[in-house]
Amino acid sequence: MIYVGVTGWGDHDTLYENVPARDKLKEYGAHFPVVEVDASFYAVQPVKNVRKWVDETPDAFRFIVKAYQGMTGHQRGEIPFESKDAMFEAFKESIVPFLESGKLAMILFQFPPWFDCTKDNVNYIRYCREQMQGIPVSLEFRHQSWYSPDFRQGTLGFMKNEDWIHSICDEPQAGEGSVPRVVEATNGDATLIRFHGRNVYGWNHTGKENWREVRYLYRYNQAELEEWIPHIRKLEQESKDLYILFNNNSGGDAADNAKQMIDLLGIQYSGLAPKQLDLF
Length: 280
What we know:
With about 280 residues, the protein is of the alpha/beta class. The protein has one domain: TIM Barrel. Helix content is about 35%, strand content about 15%. The protein has 13 helices and 8 strands. The chain has helices at about 25-30, 40, 45-55, 70, 85-95, 95-100, 120-130, 150-160, 200-205, 210-215, 220-225, 230-240, 255-265; strands at about 1-5, 35, 60-65, 105-110, 135-140, 165-170, 190-195, 240-245. Strands 1-2-3-4-5-6-7-8 form an 8-stranded parallel barrel. The longest helix is centred in the middle third of the chain and has 13 residues, at about 120-130. The radius of gyration is 18 Å and the shape is globular.
């Protein structure tokens, strides 16, 4: 099955009209069958939050949950846990409602732009996989060395052998901190595609205060989405489930582009939540 959605559910204005923030996930589930949880990146979430999200979504709904920033090395300095093992244990406890409900698609380990292809980093990825044993995990790199001619096949083979889901990126080609489009599945159960936009200027200007607003400011045109259709059809044959997320939401474009992609693929979802009626 192909699941198409966006990252987060709070900032997509075209999906909501007179919907309070507390009810946005319920309404979101009327539009898309999958969402990426970003809150888990910034803090290990209380179980009560996760249980609420599970309860507010249809039975067939799926969550892609970003790994906590301390687990991927984004948080520089000391982590607010006694040890790395304790950090992973706290995170695993937080996702129990996702697992028990069957709504967890995967945990996304997105490593930072400075996480390059070295022996130490390969060993750390192995450590992450051991910590998350029995839980589906996906791997996204931000340093292009992993896909350089010397390491590309080794990277893909490593992901296959270690049971990682490949997170394939569509993003600007703007130096070491961006990765090429590598349309290869590494897991027979699932593959993930994340559309970050193609804003080269914004991708390189990350030192400014509002860099997030600039980096993902991009709207895909019809031709850019259409060029992905043969790649999606290829990946559909290589994995049982294919997840497609749009992360280009600085200008509110992600939800519209996601719906365009659904139309291009000819998908009609069943089992979505009922849309709220705006009576007044």
